[in-house]
Design a protein that fits this description.
mainly alpha, 60% helix, 3 strands, 119 residues, 6 helices, 3-stranded antiparallel beta sheet, 12% strand
């Protein structure tokens, strides 16, 4: 790919105020790395399906597996990743573990994602 194939400015004119603002507002590298890792978790369709199911209703592993036509083992593996990423939480109810979206931020991310692709 040559430079002619990529849109670019025809004149080099630096906007120091814009660059300074971006530099001031840019999170540090550790935060950006963590953000990239978070979005990697959203990059798996099985995990997205689980999150969407939990967007609708709190559920146990067996109900999630049944809803998604998958094995409990496969769901449990993905739930572990989602829990480590602080996207889902759980609580014990008798002999069952009930899973739910960790907080309203996760609900917002899923909702905004759906809205974005439906535009």
């Amino acid at each position: 790919m040559s430079l002619n194939d990529v849109e670019h400015c025809d004149v080099v004119h630096k906007h120091a105020d814009v660059v300074l603002k971006v530099h001031r507002e840019m999170p540090d590298d550790d935060k950006l790395y963590d953000l990239a890792e978070l979005f990697k978790v959203f990059g798996d369709s099985t995990r997205i399906r689980i999150l969407f199911a939990l967007f609708e209703e709190e559920m146990c592993v067996c109900d999630i597996a049944d809803s998604l036509s998958m094995t409990q083992s496969a769901i449990s593996h993905q739930l572990k990743i989602l829990k480590q990423s602080k996207l889902v939480g759980n609580r014990r109810e008798g002999k069952q573990i009930i899973y739910f979206l960790a907080d309203d931020h996760v609900r917002t991310i899923i909702g905004q994602g759906i809205n974005h692709i439906e535009e």
